[in-house]
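Problem statement: downstream parser choked on a complex file, so we are re-checking the raw output for the zinc ion run. The parser issue turned out to be on our end (a line-ending mismatch), but while we're here, posting the original submission so the record is complete.
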Amino acid sequence: MSDVRQHAEDIHDQFSDHLDITVDDVEERLTTLVDEYKVPVDEGRRSVTNHYLEEAGLEREDIARGGSEAVNVEDIDEEEQWVDITAKVIELWDPRSDSVAQVGLLGDPTGTIKFTKWAKSELPSLEEGGVYELRNVVTDEYQGRYSVKLNSTTVVEELEDDIEVGDDTSEIEGALVDMQSGSGLIKRCPEEDCTRVLQNGRCNEHGEVEGEFDLRIKGVVDDGIDAHEVIFDAEATESLTGISLEEGKEMAMDALDTTVVADEIREKIIGTYYRIEGPTFGRYVLADDVEELDGPVDAEQLLIKARSM
Ligand SMILES: [Zn+2]
């Protein structure tokens, strides 16, 4: 089979549910571009795909790239991959946008992952506690957290068998050796669904906005073997330092400077040993449960070690 014919078949497969076209139609279009206009075949394929996308009124992500691969949840570490997963619906959340039909958390024996089902996908409703084989979902990433999107090409099949959902929490025991920038009193974008941390009063997505204060620590915990990046939210920060969001705001107001909060936090936590438990999101562990440990802590030594990593 010729190269062009193979490409034509692939394109035809992607659109066969959406358009009344034959492989010959696609091949003719592609051959014209390649033979008459001397367009490289890959570029021709893109151009022909775009033509049919427009004709079908579809977005690129609506069509399958063909040959999605069955994966475990924990193996999803790249965006824009077409994959098949078998997972249980652990939780459903309220969609915050009309374009989303369902949003929630899926789990398989290896871990959990957020899913979004587009309203225009017109897929059947997933039930909490239900186990499904989801073929042809596309992966996405936001701030180091992966998710899967169910689109109009996704095939949903409910399964009879229950599956055990794995625990993807991490437990780290070690010394807090460093605190990264973006810790302390920060401001977040108030736009719905955004919550990005502002840089100089600006959101990457929404520009200049009136931010909302939040308190967090991005810490580095050394367990003697590895350095782990751990995020402590406002609640965890308060339990670690005794500084609440309100107190943090007051401290910043008194000093006319938000950096005093980070300085104070740093003083309280660096060199302290903790046992930290929480879910892993990308490279971060979110500290859900924190316990302070006592033990011989030589902060100076640890800092030297941390810097050498
Ligand atoms: Zn924003």
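For whoever reads this later: The chain has three domains: 3-62, 69-159, 169-292.
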